[in-house]
Amino acid sequence: MKISSSITNKWSFCIFASFLSCIILLVCLNQGHDSEKLSGVQNITLSATTSSNDSAQHPAASMQHLESSNPAASIQFLEPSHVGEHVKEINKEDHSGNLAPHPAAIMQLLQPSNVGEHENETNEEEHVCNIFDGKWVYDPTASPMYNRSQCPFLSDQVSCQRNGRPDFVYEKWNWEAKGCEIPRFNGTDMLERLRGKRVIIVGDSLNRNQWESLACLLYSAIPIPSSQAYVNVKSGDYKVLRAKDYNCSVEFYWSPFLIELKERRGKKIMRLNKLSASAQNWHGAHIMVFNTGHWWNHPGKIKEFDFFQYRKKVVEVDKIETGLAFEMAMKTWARWIDKTVDINNTKVFFRSISPEHKGKQWCYNETKLIMDESYKAIFPKSMVEIVERTISSMKKPVKYLNITKLSQYRRDAHPSVYTTKQGKLLTAAQRRQPWSYADCSHWCLPGLPDTWNRLVYASMVLD
């Protein structure tokens, strides 16, 4: 019995010892697991609070963090300045056979949003293209942008070849900008860009010259213009080309001063604070091209009027400087643009002065360009400054179509004696009197205004 009792006691002790050992082992294992969890929390907190400099100093630690179960979530802590270092580490780990981050995560590293923005800003600064600064390049193989026979509504005033001009060299010069390439004019593409839109060209006979050019450029790009286009050039105050399939129009409004002209009791009045009556038709246009200045600089045109009126105040024309009246008119135009135009739907251009070639650089019988860089067109500097100052002070953006300098070279491109006078072609006797009849103001078509419109098209493309 003693022996049996002893065995029983020993067996009970063994069971108790085994049970106690199991409890101790479980406690140890549980403490290790909690330690691992705590360690993991500490690592995540460290990664989230580590500065970019710390990451740069410890790329291995960053890589260890990238190898966590959610690498994409870890990438957000990487600074763009250290992208190169981390990509190298990723590639190194990948080639060594260890686990590399998901490809999507690598793409996030390679394309940080702010790096791309800075690259775009740099590229824009490096590739700013001034399409108005350049030179004329002669190309003997060049052809006009349209054939004059494709444009039956072209007026006699500017149809130089039809009027007997014998030379064609003036049609073979191309304008090239310095440091960048100007897009070639594409009539079909411009029609597509104008689909469902209106273009208005407002101003004097030089803007009418530009309207005829643009109308011909687009008309010649329509497959069957006789049926797919509508043209009305009968009125001197309003001309229009409509491309039916594109539901777009190009319209010209005659307004050489841009302001309202009135006649009361036999007296002619220029209302400096009110725009031309045609302004009610300008609303809603998607592209607007304005010009003025030539008639303001023509003493004979101003003297046809008796009074300037500003609101309720009336002053005789010879009692106020023309430059002051011109500036008041420009401000009236600028206020209308600022108040009326929706820049989300409309682009506004103001074309600079188109130079005449008289006096020393007379256009008569000229077939060569002016190569003298010091040549300046004769036009009051103060009026040019008024235009530029007005535009720069406006709230709404206006693109300054600065064609003055590039046009100054082109004394060869005027109609000269191959034109009309009071609606009739010059006679042989009149052509022998160029000092009285040569037109050195307007431009042959096809010709220089086609380049003006090419620059309008280029601004649309480059924008």
Automatic annotation (TrEMBL):
Annotated Trichome birefringence-like C-terminal domain ranges read 182-458
Q: Name one GO molecular function term.
A: O-acetyltransferase activity
User: Would the keyword Transcription be found if you checked this record's keyword annotation?
Assistant: no
List, alphabetically, the PROSITE patterns matched: PROKAR_LIPOPROTEIN (PS51257)
Q: Which InterPro entries does the protein's record reference? A: TBL, TBL_C, TBL_N
Q: Where in the cell is it found?
A: Membrane
Determine if Disulfide bond is one of this entry's keywords.
no
Give all residue intervals belonging to the Trichome birefringence-like N-terminal domain: 129-181
The cellular component terms of Gene Ontology attached to this UniProt record, alphabetical and capped at eight, are: Golgi apparatus; membrane
Q: Which UniProt keywords apply?
A: Membrane, Signal, Signal-anchor, Transmembrane, Transmembrane helix
Signal peptide: which range, if any? 1-35
Query: Topology with regard to the membrane?
Result: Single-pass membrane protein
- Into which family does the record put it? Belongs to the PC-esterase family. TBL subfamily.
User: What is the name of this protein?
Assistant: Trichome birefringence-like N-terminal domain-containing protein
Question: What species was this sequence derived from?
Answer: Quercus rubra (Northern red oak)
